[in-house]
């Protein structure tokens, strides 16, 4: 009985190993993999395709050098950056510093002409230091400055105010430690007339574009950022940093509850509405942290800025951070178990080997003539014959039949193999007989131990 169990277990493990190997090999679809690396479907980007280049240009480098040598502050046509001159003088040592303001949206050759001004010998050897401002990108020597919080992004992109950036670069040139922080924008509640005009457009079209704003329409990805509720969008031009700025977002959110309200001040995006605290700061800091360098140097329309911001909100929403569960992915047992299949296969093979070795160790005489084994089992059958009952007689009879058949086999190799096979059957029947008479000491594996079988 035990030998039969071992055989069944061994063949079961072998079957499992074969099945695992077949499944694993069928999943290795190497022929379906495209390993070509030269066929990217992307298209080449040409500078200006996104509308970021402006209409203004700059004079030749030599002319700009002469202007900087003649005046402490040079503003080229189209330059729109502003700064609080009085605050800068009071908080930063500006002596010996000259400023060159260039317009945003310059092409590569124009930007190169501006950068060459600082490298000109007439400027490099001059008794002053030059800080260039292209759009709102501030650079002086090896130093550049960028905001690191929402207040700084507001000043730079809502009002083109570079006061803090100038303070940071000049302080760096002077090696003066940490730069002072400039005052932020001043906000006020919009008047009733201002709010009424904007609200009327929003109620009618869900869009208000003030004079001077460049937004043409609400980008199509707004539905992805705010599914289920169409946002209201207000586009305003760049603000004057010297005057209080109307804070439309919270006022409109109060008038239109449970509605996303997006307000653009120049190239800065403000928001009020559902879930603001869960995503606004992350999305806004992410957009301006990644795109701030280009937004500061180029003249992007508000459509592009709003599109990028809505994309970031969509990314955060689909990451499951607010008001949207992750898309359901059905459980795929094959993908989960695939990494374990080689180990299952190895375990099955090991089990087959162990069981085979065990079976061989339990039959050490199979390679020898069956004489001793036949004698031992014959003696056992004689001893138990006097103890058998009606229930155990059939198994003993079958055992004796197998023993007689084994005794008749010849001494050839084939005969020995056949004899051992018959003796195996006799062992199983005698084991069953010992079980039925309740005498475990008459089990063949115990009885024949002393026979050297």
What does this structure look like?
- With about 450 residues, the chain is an alpha/beta fold.
- It has three domains: about 60-175; about 185-320, Diaminopimelate Epimerase, Chain A, domain 1 (Roll); about 365-450, no CATH class.
- The protein has helices at about 1-25, 60-70, 85-90, 110-120, 120-125, 150-160, 165-175, 190-205, 220-225, 250-255, 275-295, 300-320, 335, 340-360, 370-385, 395-405, 415-435, 445, and strands at about 75, 95-100, 130-135, 135-140, 145, 185-190, 205-210, 230-235, 245, 260-265, 270.
- It has a five-stranded mixed sheet with strand order 1-2-3-4-5, with helices on both faces.
- The protein starts with a helix and ends in a 6-residue tail after the last helix.
- The relative contact order is 0.09.
- Residues about 35-45 have low confidence and may be disordered.
Describe what is shown at a glance.
The protein is an alpha/beta fold. The chain has helices at 2-26, 61-70, 85-91, 108-119, 121-124, 150-159, 163-174, 192-205, 222-225, 248-255, 276-297, 302-318, 333-337, 341-362, 371-385, 393-407, 413-437, 444-447; strands spanning 73-75, 97-102, 129-134, 137-140, 143-145, 187-188, 207-209, 232-236, 245-246, 261-265, 268-272. It is built from 18 helices and eleven strands.
Task: Give keywords.
single chain, 453 residues, alpha/beta, Diaminopimelate Epimerase, Chain A, domain 1, four-stranded mixed β-sheet, 18 helices, elongated
């Amino acid at each position: 009985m035990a030998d039969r169990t071992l055989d069944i277990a061994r063949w079961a493990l072998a079957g499992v190993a074969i099945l695992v190997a077949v499944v694993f090999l069928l999943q290795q679809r190497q022929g379906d993999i495209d390993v070509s690396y030269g066929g990217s479907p992307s298209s080449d980007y040409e500078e200006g395709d996104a509308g970021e280049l402006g209409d203004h240009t700059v004079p030749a480098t030599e002319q700009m050098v002469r202007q900087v040598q003649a005046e402490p502050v040079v503003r080229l046509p189209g330059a729109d950056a502003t700064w609080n001159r009085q605050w800068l003088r009071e908080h930063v040592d500006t002596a010996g510093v000259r400023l060159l303001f260039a317009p945003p949206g310059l092409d590569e050759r124009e930007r190169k002409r501006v950068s060459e001004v600082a490298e000109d010998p007439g400027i490099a050897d001059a008794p002053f230091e030059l800080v260039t401002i292209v759009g709102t990108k501030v650079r002086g020597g090896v130093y550049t400055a960028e905001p690191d919080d929402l207040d700084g992004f507001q000043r730079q992109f809502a009002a083109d105010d570079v006061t803090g950036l100038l303070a940071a670069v000049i302080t760096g040139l002077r090696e003066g430690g940490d730069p002072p922080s400039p005052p932020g924008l001043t906000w006020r509640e919009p008047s009733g007339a201002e709010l009424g005009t904007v609200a009327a457009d929003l109620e009618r079209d869900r869009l208000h574009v003030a004079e001077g704003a460049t937004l043409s329409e609400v980008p199509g990805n707004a539905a992805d950022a705010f599914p289920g509720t169409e946002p209201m969008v207000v586009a305003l031009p760049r603000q004057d940093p010297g005057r209080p700025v109307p804070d439309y977002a919270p006022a409109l959110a109060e008038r239109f509850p449970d509605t996303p309200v997006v307000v653009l001040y120049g190239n800065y995006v403000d928001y009020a509405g559902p879930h603001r605290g869960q995503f606004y700061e992350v999305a806004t800091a992410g957009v301006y942290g990644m795109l701030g360098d280009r937004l500061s140097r180029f003249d992007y329309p508000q459509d592009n800025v709003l599109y990028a911001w809505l994309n970031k909100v969509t990314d955060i929403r689909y990451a499951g951070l607010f008001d949207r569960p992750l898309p359901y992915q059905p459980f795929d047992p094959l993908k989960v178990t695939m990494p374990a299949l080689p180990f299952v296969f190895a375990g099955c093979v090991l089990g087959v080997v162990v069981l085979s070795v065990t079976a061989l160790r339990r039959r050490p005489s199979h390679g020898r003539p069956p004489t001793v084994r036949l004698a031992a089992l014959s003696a056992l059958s004689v001893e138990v014959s006097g103890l058998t009952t009606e229930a155990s007689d059939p198994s003993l009879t079958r055992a004796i039949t197998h023993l007689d058949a084994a005794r008749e086999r010849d001494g050839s190799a084939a005969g020995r193999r056949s004899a051992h096979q018959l003796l195996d059957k006799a062992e199983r029947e005698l084991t069953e007989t010992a079980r039925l008479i309740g005498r475990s000491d008459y089990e063949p594996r115990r009885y024949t131990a002393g026979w050297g079988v």
